[in-house]
Amino acid sequence: MSEDLLSAKLMISCQDKPGIIAAVTNFLASNDINIVHADQHSMPVENKSMFFMRLVFEYDAQSVDIDSIENDFGTLVGNEHEMNWNIFRDEERKKIAILASKTDHCLLEILWRWRSGEINADIPLIISNHDTLEKEVHSFGIPFYHLPIDNKSKNQQEEQILTLLKDNDVDLIVLARYMQILSDNFTKIYQNKIINIHHSFLPAFVGADPYGQAIERGVKVVGATAHYATEDLDQGPIIEQDVIRLTHREGRKKIIELGKEVERSVLARAVKWHLEDRIFIVGNKTIVFN
Question: Is 234 assigned a catalytic role?
Answer without folding.
Answer: yes
